[in-house]
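In the lab's daily routine, each protein ends up as an entry in a very long ledger. A line of letters takes care of the sequence, but it says nothing directly about the fold. The fold becomes a row of whole numbers, each drawn from a learned catalogue of backbone shapes. The protein below has been through that process, and both of its lines are reproduced in full:
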Amino acid sequence: MNEQLYYDSESLAWIFAKSGLSMKEQSLIVNGIYQTDLRRLHPRYRRSKLKLVREVSARQEWILHHRELEDEVSAAMQDISDLHPGEDAVLHFLDENQHVERFFKSVRLQLLFLPDKEYVRAKLRTIMKEYGYKRRSEKFQQYLEECLRYYQIKVFLKGGSEIRIRDARVDDMLTLRIIERK
């Protein structure tokens, strides 16, 4: 199994910091993970909720106070993209799929553990832009499908027809739902 698909302190901190969730909502998510989604939590946190909460809090604090670093990374990604126009717009020293799974983790956590949240809408273009992608390589599309399978998320078009993410146009409004709500 791909380790970066697990929920861990870094990905949870990023999700919480980026989504603007309240402390109550964050608590609902963490408790929900321990009650019903433990198998997706990284093994080093399965026995200690306190360890997870402390590490999430520390990482979230760092994320919230180091936004300028993200701007520098984005600028570096653009520079590399300009230097290597035929390649995906990612930093060579980072794993090319390092953060896109965070979007799907966030979708799953919100849909499972936040009350009255039944779907998330997004355009593929927005997802790609958020994570530094300019085109859909085969490898990128395969990774999106792996994330959708792992997090048990289905993708629908407006009107409710299910679609494979690789068949969606970049400007289609996608509705993401959990396959089986708990």
Q: What stands out?
A: The first strand starts at residue 120 and ends at 123.
